[in-house]
Amino acid sequence: MIFFDRVEFRYNEKSETSFNLKEVSFSCQKGLINGVIGGNGSGKSTVARLMAGMIQPLAGTIKVDGASPFAHIIQCGFLAGIIFQNPENQIVGTTVEEDLAFGLENLSLDREQMHSRVAEIARRFNLYDLLKAPVANLSGGQKQLLCIASVMVMEPSWLIFDEPSSHLDPWARQDFWQIVKSFICEKDIGVVVISQLPEDMQHFSHILAFDAGALVFDGTSNQFKKAAIGNTCFNLPESWKFERLMQISND
Ligand SMILES: Nc1ncnc2c1ncn2[C@@H]1O[C@H](COP(=O)(O)OP(=O)(O)O)[C@@H](O)[C@H]1O
Ligand SMILES: [Mg+2]
Predict the structure, then answer these.
(1) pLDDT in tens, 33-50
(2) Which end of the chain has fewer CB atoms < 10 Å from its terminal CB, N or C?
């Protein structure tokens, strides 16, 4: 479980009044797709960085599977790994194999273990035949897969996707969602997906909505459908609006 209790954060420590996150409390469970939505600058990526332990809260408590993600990094690596929006900024190797092995270098595994982990993850993501290929030759969709694989190879207990599908074409986006759903079914791995795309919202079972650093909604997608119709802050899927209109006309 990811647990936030009255978490506050600001980037500019000197400014005493303005918070980038204001007293945010929620929890996310494994086995669900936890969706984080909100406009630009609403605090979504800040929540992701806090979950991963890349930054530390100014006040409040964060636990990921019972441990502090910030303290855990120093001892044993990421509890929650982030996949960022733009694969170009995340890829560090020149070949697929190098990129997959990069994070493992710090985990004090022997060569054998490293090779078998890289091979296993490459097979799972259909990248095995491309292990020796230069990353520059990959398609946009393959690069996105490589980013997910490079985080997965570290075996984090949670995966956080920060607007991962915003630049994928509709077909690649379908593949993306299939992979995300396979994690939830097969692996004991928690999933948080940040997205502003209305079409992604239909995949969320739990929704956290942010506005100006405050958590303005925490509930199921059905509850959100009812609460958010008429609210112009969020780009709801057309099908949801339609469904709601039909419901109202039947009431
Ligand atoms: N590295 C940073 N330094 C200073 N301010 C930042 C930084 N990153 C984000 N912010 C500010 O924090 C707020 C929340 O940003 P962010 O979490 O990136 O929002 P979102 O991901 O929802 O677009 C915004 O006002 C943004 O300008
Ligand atoms: Mg962001």
Answers:
(1) 999 999 889 999 999 999
(2) C
